[in-house]
Amino acid sequence: MNLERWRRLASSLLGRRLTVRMTEPFYRLMARWETARHLQSLPTEGLLVNLGCGYHPFPGWVNVDLARGYADVVWDIRQGLPFQDGTCRVIFGEHLIEHLTREEALHLATECYRVLEPGGIVRISTPDSEKFLRSYVANDGFLFSPAFPEIIESPIDRINLIMRAHGHHLWAYDETSLRRLLQQAGFNQIVRQTCQSSLSIDLADRDHPEREFESLYLEARKEARKIDSKEPGNGGDS
């Protein structure tokens, strides 16, 4: 009998809540073992990393999430990234950074800089707080857009939802503040992008179009390694 059959049998006998409580340590241990095995199998260059993949893993990428189910690597990104220095070609984080505190977000951005190869790119999207606040002042109707999943009664309801998200959102960003965070992490080549437009072909079609209307997109490139003109074979003095 496989594990899923055992789980269903236990659930029918003990009830779902008790079964989950009893089996959770086992599944956590299995997730740690499978994550460690997956990390050991990764190449040491050219990794494509999808942070906070949720229900949307990318085939051929390293999909990272705290929740089990769709992630290749079950990991708490607040503790850093489980990759070696300079091994990642691109890193994608869609509507993830707002779920971290400002300090955790800076740590994550610094970790992205560490694990990116020279010339590698991190792409971050998040709700565009400036757009929300300008709309609140202008009363232009954006906050009542039917594209939002929640119905609101007043404009300030939308501001509360985007800033707090029932406790799931911990920090809000506009372009200036997100640029500053990336600069503090070490990036100096930062570009604002539009949905599915990118400096990298790997990232060009990864955004979910249904979130375009509310999103801010920034990409930051790690500076390429400078070649010393005096190195042999680079035209330096001999």
Can you walk me through this structure?
- The chain is α/β, with parallel strands linked by helices and 238 residues long.
- 34% of the residues lie in helices and 18% in strands.
- It has six helices and seven strands.
- It has helices at residues 3-14, 16-41, 102-115, 129-138, 155-164, 175-184, and strands at 47-51, 62-65, 73-74, 88-94, 116-127, 189-193, 215-221.
- Strands 3-2-1-4-5-7-6 form a seven-stranded mixed β-sheet.
- Helix 3 (102-115) links the parallel strand 4 (88-94) and strand 5.
- Helix 1 (3-14) packs antiparallel against helix 2 (16-41).
- The longest helix has 26 residues, at 16-41.
- The N and C termini lie far apart (71 Å).
- The mean pLDDT is 89.
Topology:
Elements: H1 3-14, H2 16-41, E1 47-51, E2 62-65, E3 73-74, E4 88-94, H3 102-115, E5 116-127, H4 129-138, H5 155-164, H6 175-184, E6 189-193, E7 215-221
Parallel strand pairs: 1-2, 1-4, 2-3, 4-5
Antiparallel strand pairs: 5-7, 6-7
Helix pairs in contact: 1-2, 4-5
H/E element order: HHEEEEHEHHHEE
Reported for the largest beta sheet, the result is: 7 strands, mixed
Strand content: 15-25%
Structural class: alpha/beta
Task: Please give the radius of gyration in angstroms.
Answer: 21 Å
Oligomeric state: single chain
Overall average pLDDT: 89
Helix count? 6
Apparent shape: globular
| Strand count | 7
Strand order of the largest sheet: 3-2-1-4-5-7-6
Helix percentage range: 25-40%
Unreliable parts:
none
Gap between N and C termini: 71 Å
